[in-house]
Amino acid sequence: MRTPVYELHIRPMFRATDREHMAFSLDLWDFDSVVANADLVLERIDGGGMPPDDHAGPWPDEWVALFRRWHETGHKRLQVGTAAFTLARTASAVTITATGTFPAAGFEGWLQLESETDTARTYVLYYEAPDSPAAGTPESFTRKERYDATDTRTVFVRDSAGVHELR
Q1: DSSP state, residue 8
Q2: 3-state secondary structure of 30
Q3: Is the domain of 32 the same as that of 108?
Q4: Are strands 84-89 and 79-80 parallel, antiparallel or unpaired?
Q5: Are residues 67 and 14 in the same domain?
Q6: Nearest Cα to 109, choosing from 136, 150, 139?
Q7: What pLDDT does residue 16 have?
Q8: Nearest-angstrom CA–CA distance, 151 and 79
Q9: Overall number of domains in the chain
Q10: If DSSP codes are grouped into helix, strand and coil, which group holds residue 90?
Q11: Do 50 and 101 share a domain, yes or no?
Q12: Phi/psi at 63 (nearest 5 deg)?
């Protein structure tokens, strides 16, 4: 069974109303805050009446079990990767390309749309470590993200070196 990952499996379970309700003691959308308070969170969601009925109601049992498994397996999270980025605009598509080498064997990676406004799209390059260390050498990668050429917003990419505007 796959090890749960904060950004993929845990963070999406924290609804805005959950975050607001717990803001007095921790930020449920902040990895470090959740890790530091994971025992308390687990206690509250597992039979502690949290979230209360008037704040979206308790989590389903499957969510509680997933959070418990994430907590018990060491709080896995994604890494923000590093790559060389290019942006190509054609008549039919805009293509963002990330090219690099994973930090170790067995890693996976992808570009993910992180946010968008009326004037900009921001992507993040994520790496996911394997659940168990893999033998071998790190692999080179090329990852692409395409969208319609009619979208002329400015493109930014966030990687481990910071935020870069692609031109």
Answers
A1: I
A2: coil
A3: no
A4: unpaired
A5: yes
A6: 139
A7: 87
A8: 28
A9: 2
A10: coil
A11: no
A12: -70, -45
Going residue by residue through the chain, which has 167 residues, state the pLDDT in tens, using 9 for 90 and above: 889 999 999 999 998 888 888 888 899 999 999 999 999 899 888 876 677 677 677 888 999 999 999 999 999 999 999 999 999 999 999 999 999 999 999 999 999 999 999 999 999 999 999 999 999 999 999 999 999 999 999 999 999 999 999 99
Buried b (16+ CB within 10 A) or exposed e, 16-48: eebeebbeeebebeeeeebeebbeebbebbeee
Looking at the structure, do residues 129 and 57 belong to the same domain, yes or no?
no
Q: Among 49, 72, 95, give the residue marking a domain's end.
A: 72
Q: Six-digit token pair at 26?
A: 């921790």
Last residue of a domain, one of 72, 104, 130: 72
Alpha-carbon separation of residue 14 from 45, 47, 78, 98 (angstroms): 11, 17, 17, 30
Residue 119 pLDDT: 98
Domain of 111 in residue numbering reads as: 79-166
**36 and 11 together in one domain:** yes
Residues 84 and 162 in one domain: yes
Give the position of tokens 């008549």.
91
